[in-house]
Amino acid sequence: MASEALILVCPHTDEVGEPSSPHPLWDDLAGSMSDPVLAARLEASSMTLPFQERRIGAHRVRAERRSVPAAVDLVQVSRAINLRAVESASSIEQLLGCSLAYALHYPGRVRAGLSVGPAGATPLLYGNLTHYVLARLFADGMLDPDDAAARAGQMFDEQMPQVAETLLFPDHQTDRATVRHAVVASARAVAALVARTGSTLRGFE
């Protein structure tokens, strides 16, 4: 899914000095080239970081073990926890349901991390994806119903891998088609409603 550059890192040797085999993906890349010998041009023992304007070399670093988290009875913060400048319906719902969960999620920015897999194919995911596409669809102005429907379908296909990767799984083909149809129909309906009533769009959530 890389759009600009793909950097693959593989140690030449393992921890005891034995040669390390590259990832199978590298074999696929080299095999797809017209001349396998050209694959050597893609290998480098160091690389330049443009944003830092310096060259870094490959070296092995043993990672320090992190301490095991311990439960605490009291947490102190350096400032008062206030509401954000703009709250969404979901954040207000979480605040009313559990103020601690709100504080950890929004001001604290505590996330589940990589231990949690992709979101399940649920109505909440469908709604979030629909909101995401429609907000970006009409962000630059109103479209006529046919253009809105066509553009919504295109944006759905482009944005789905980043927003709802679960729908890319083979067992969710039916869900993907159903949600895409709903997004396209919603875009057409919104554009038709705005055109018929002469309304204007002031903002998006």
Q: H/E order of the elements?
A: HEEHHHHH
Cα radius of gyration in angstroms: 24 Å
Strand content: under 5%
Q: Please describe the biggest sheet, giving its number of strands, its sense, and whether it closes into a barrel.
A: 2 strands, antiparallel
Which word captures the global form?
A: extended
Q: Helix- and strand-based class? A: mainly alpha
Report what the structure shows.
It is a single chain. The chain is mainly α. Helix content is 40%, strand content 4%. The chain contains 6 helices and 2 strands; from the N terminus they run H-E-E-H-H-H-H-H. It has helices at residues 24-31, 89-97, 99-105, 123-137, 145-163, 173-197, and strands at 46-49, 54-57. It has a two-stranded antiparallel sheet. The chain is extended. It starts with 23 loop residues before the first helix and ends in an 8-residue tail after the last helix. The mean pLDDT is 82.
